Amino acid sequence: MVELRQAAVTLGGRTLWDQLDLTLARGEFLAVLGPNGVGKTTLLKVLLGLVPLSAGTVRVNGEPPRRGNPTLGYIPQQQAFDRQLPIRARDLVRFGVDGHRWGVGLRSGTARRRVREVMDAVGATAYADAPVGLLSGGEQQRLRIAQALLGDPTVLLCDEPLLALDLASQQAVTRLIDERRRSAGTPVVFVTHEVNPVLPYVDRILYLVRGKWAIGPPPEILTSARLTDLYGIAVDVIKVRDRYIVVSADDELATEPGGHAHHGPGHRH
Fold first, then answer.
1. 3-state DSSP: the chain helix, strand, coil percent, rounded to 5?
2. Is-contact 207 20, C-beta < 8 A?
3. N or C: which end of the chain has fewer CB atoms below 10 A?
4. How far is Cα 69 from Cα 75, in angstroms, rounded to an integer?
5. Torsion angle defined by CA atoms of residues 30, 214, 33 and 199, in that order, rounded to the nearest 10 degrees
6. By C-alpha distance, which of 228, 262, 229 is closest to 245?
7. Is the pLDDT of residue 261 over 70?
8. Strands of the sheet with 155-159, listed across from one edge
9. Three-class DSSP category at 147
C-alpha cells in the first residue's frame, strides 16, 4: 500500500536518506526512528505529496503521491490549543470534512453523521460540545485521530502523536491507532522519538541516521551492533524487561529510540 524504491531526498544540498527500499503491507505498523534532522517527518511529507523525491520512485495505493490525497489520514504532533479558542470539539473534527486541507466534501447530513461516528470511535463523544482549548492533551489528540479517520483512510500517517502526552494518554492514543489498523487493515507509519510506548504494536522499525537507514523487526534493529554501525560510534543497547535503553559515551546520540543515556565525563542524563 506504500512502496518506495531506491528513494532519496536531498534538501539544501544535504541528502537525508538515499536508496531507501520500503514496502508497507496491509495492516502493518511501521515505527520510524532516528535523531532530529534525519528526515523522519520528511518521509511523511513525501507520502503526502508535499516533498518530491530527488531519486527513485514512490507509490501510495499504487499511485504517485499527491496533495490532498483523501486515501491518507494524517495525525500531526500534539500541540496545545489556546485555552480561549471558542471552537467546540465536534467543530474541530468537522474541519476534516468542510474546512480541512483534505476537503472530503460530504453533504451536511452525511458530514454530521460521520463526525458522530468517528468521535464515538475514539471515545470523544462525552466532550463533543466542549471548547477544545479546555480539553486535556490526550483529549485533543483523540480529536485529531477522529479528524484523520473521517475520510476512512487506507493509510494512516502519524507524526510524533505522543509528544507532550502523559503515559496514560500515550497508551490510549496508541491503542486507538492500533485498533484502527487491526479492524480496517490500515497500515500505520508512526514517526516517534520514543519507541517503548508503541513497541507492543510495532511490526517493523525504519531507523534513519545521517543518510543511512536500516529496516526490520525491533529485535533485529535495536541491537548494539546494528546501531553502532548506523551511528558510526560505539552504542550499547540494553533491554530491561520489555524496554530498550540506548547508551553511548558520545554526544552524537541526539535523540532516543527507547531511552537514551549518555555516559562518560559530564555526559550523564
1. 30, 30, 40
2. no
3. C
4. 14
5. 50
6. 262
7. no
8. 72-75, 155-159, 188-191, 29-33, 204-209, 212-216
9. helix
Helix, strand or coil, per DSSP, at residue 42: helix
Bridge partner list, 269:
none
Task: Report the amino acid identity of residue 82.
Answer: D
Cα separation, 1 vs 23, in Å, equals 7
CA–CA gap between residue 82 and residue 89 (Å, rounded): 13
Nearest to 100 by CA among 81, 72, 125, 59: 72
Nearest-10 crossing angle of helices 137-149, 167-184: 10
Name the pTM for this structure: 0.85
Q: Which residue has the cell 470539539?
A: 89
Q: Cell 536531498 maps to which residue?
A: 10
pLDDT in tens, 93-127: 988 665 444 444 455 677 888 899 999 989 999 99
Element (DSSP H or E) covering residue 110:
helix 108-121
- Cβ-proximal residues to 267 (8 Å cutoff; 6+ apart), any chain: 249, 251
Question: Contact at 8 Å (CB) between 172 and 161?
Answer: no
Q: C-alpha grid cell for residue 25?
A: 503491507
What pLDDT shows up at residue 104? 45
What stretch of H or E contains 171? helix 167-184
The CATH number assigned to the domain with range 2-255 reads 3.40.50.300
The residue type of 168 is A
Q: Tell me the residue ranges of DSSP E strands in 68-220.
A: 72-75, 155-159, 188-191, 204-209, 212-216
